[in-house]
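Recall that a protein's primary structure is simply its ordered list of amino acids. Everything else, from secondary elements to tertiary packing, is in principle encoded there. The following example makes that idea concrete.
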Amino acid sequence: MKVRWLMVAVMFASTAVGGAKERVSMRVSPSFSFAPANLVIRATVEPDAQNRSLEVVADSAEFYRSSMIQLEGDRAPKTMMFQFRSLPPGDYELTATVKGPGGQTRAVTRSTVTVFEAGRAR
């Protein structure tokens, strides 16, 4: 039970690499779901001429899914939406990473989501 509460606390914490403003942030909905889960991820990226791509990853012990989009530097939209459909049960770490020229990491944020196994019929 303590592990679940710890996961909830971690879910609300996200980190960013960089200065005073968060270069990237992410909201994931829902935080808890039953399999097969459909997640909606909203990533917000501060405009910067050096931004080249945004990658969002959902990773668990048994499953991996990712999506990457190209960014047009400071002309890119500030908010982008991703959907990951039919995720199986598991504890997922979601990561949004902004990359610059040459593929170097410019900013990262993380969140967690738990997808529970659906109950069995009696």
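The longest strand covers residues 105-116. The first helix runs from residue 2 to 12.
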